[in-house]
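Sequence and fold
=================
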Amino acid sequence: MIKIMFVCHGNICRSTMAEAIAKDMIIKRGLQDKIAVASCATSCEELGNEPDARTMKVLNRHGYDASALLKGKRARQVKRHEYTDWDYFFVMDDNNIRNLSGIFEDTDQKVYKIATYTKGLNKNVADPWYSGDFETTYQELIEYIAILFDKLIDGVL
C-alpha cells in the first residue's frame, strides 16, 4: 500500500481539496488496495476547522460528493512521527517545504511539491484562501494528482 499525505498551510483549502480529488480518483480507478491518502497542515492556525466552504463548493460543482469524501474532516497539523508512517508528502508550495523542514529531520527523501512530476516542475499551487480562485486550484490539482497516480501505477515513483 502506497501512503500519500497532501500538505498545505492550514489544511482547509488545497490539501483538503487534493485529498478529496485523490480519494475519488482512487475509487474510480479501483486502487483502494494500492493507495491511501490523507491531508494535513504545517501550521496550527486552523486546527479543528472544517474544510473551507469554497473548497466544498468547487468540489461539488465538479460532481464530487465532497461531504462523503471528506466526512468528519477537520484541519490537523502534521506530526513528526508521521514521517515514518507515510511514503510521500506532496506539498503545495515552497513555504510548506520550509515549514516541514522544521518538523521533520529529513525532507529530502519523502517531501515533494505536488507539481514535481509535471511540466511545471517548480510550480507552486497558489493558496486560494487569499486569492479566492478555487477553480484554478482545482484545475491544477486534478491534473497533478492524475499524473502522480499514473507515475505510481507505472512504477516511476
About this structure: Helices lie at 14-29, 53-61, 66-69, 82-85, 94-101, 128-131, 134-153. The mean pLDDT is 95. The longest strand covers residues 2-8.
